[in-house]
């Protein structure tokens, strides 16, 4: 049954100011001048040259000439929806983040799902990681949870991100192939970076060909902190769990759909919302203390590791409902700007070296993608909380700040913006000492234990799909040495896996890759593989 969508949601206030209904109106120029003839340009005689004077033609063509903006450097292809998050409980004992301030509290959200590698017009059902980015318009500013549908990442340090993406994207000399992983450069990089082992297993699994954005999990990936009003903090991993369950396509369906209906996921999301079948996801938290973290056999700052559910249970704390399609793809889905650095009081970062690099990257790229320093004023990006500061000017400034003072301290503008003190965002005062070094903690070097944990968590059918995916991808790799290195990497994960992949390629098993550390890989008890967030 069609349910009522949230017409009165608070996010409509800033968006309403920008919404326009053109139907049945007289055509005008951008200066509001009524246009008499929209079919014919102004000429010197009916068969004469077009006149420079035709400001109506020139304005129309000039605007058209500038209609395209750069696509996102990654996650270019996406689909989005509006909705709300409702907290199941009052979590103020753990975090002062506004969305969790009371049982039943609702916060408007905008969510964009995406593929990573494909270009803006690429197919939806390719084998790839999926982005799951949520903007919470909270009472205390925007919080962006910019996650993926896989709980770990390929690399451990932001320093390697441009290399990873250069290896994943089409090769620079001929722009091929479009597929995220089926080429030499991707497997070359992956096999030379054994930290990719865990994510490679997820990437070759059915998780990388989701059935629908409505049936896909989301993960914050990094360890974050939750902070309460007393300044006490705990570590936290964020998980979105679809109430429709987690479901995948099988490879033959995915490959066929990529040709027959490249908009498959976009259409599915749009039509579900349009018909009142609103996608729903629970937000789950894994909360743990510094003392617990110190006991884990992995480093919680390492984004290639999960915290197994048997070590820390996932606690469902609220539900997100997506109940409204955007009015306009470009102004909302395309112009939305998520940023890993957008947190609100009650949420803080950790020293995860991948996260730290992300804190810089998003706003930086958006200055190019969306033009200048004022893209936070684009309606979809504006916070519901009012903005008061001394930032001024820049390309396309919208806000009209009054008065002569745009600095502080000052004595001239009684009542200018003042610091919020403890009411504002206060970073957790973490103790930090050390010599400047480039390097990694030793625990980061255990690349295989959790890859193996994922492998043994899979059913026989799912394992067969993983083997088939490795075989398919690697048969596209032209360079034998790269295929051999991937097999050597897989041998460190599981001999049966490596053997099955090698058989498919008609290759014999090479020697395993030398481990990155003398420490033996941690042996997880088989029970740790039972759930792994598979709902
Ligand atoms: C998009 C950088 C790792 C999730 C982007 C964009 C950049 C970027 C530049 C394009 C943003 C835009 O144009 O608006 C990086 C860097 C990373 C990194 C430098 C590592 C150092 C990750 C990780 C995740 C992630 C680990 C998941 C936890 C996303 C998502 C989007 C995105 C979901 C698309 C947001 C949207 O829908 O607009 N990233 N990223 N990224 N990234 Fe990352």
TrEMBL record:
Domain Catalase core, chain residue ranges per copy: 28-416
Positions that bind heme: 72, 112, 161, 358, 362, 369
Bias (Polar residues): 26-41
Active site: 75, 148
Region listing for Disordered, in residue ranges: 1-41
Reaction catalyzed: 2 H2O2 = O2 + 2 H2O
EC class of the enzyme, as a word: oxidoreductase
Iron as UniProt keyword: yes
Residue ranges with Basic and acidic residues bias: 14-25
Cofactor(s) required, per the database record: heme
Molecular-function annotations in GO: catalase activity; heme binding; metal ion binding
The enzyme's E.C. designation: 1.11.1.6
Similarity comment: family membership: Belongs to the catalase family. HPII subfamily.
Functional note: Decomposes hydrogen peroxide into water and oxygen; serves to protect cells from the toxic effects of hydrogen peroxide.
Protein name: Catalase
Species of origin: Duganella guangzhouensis
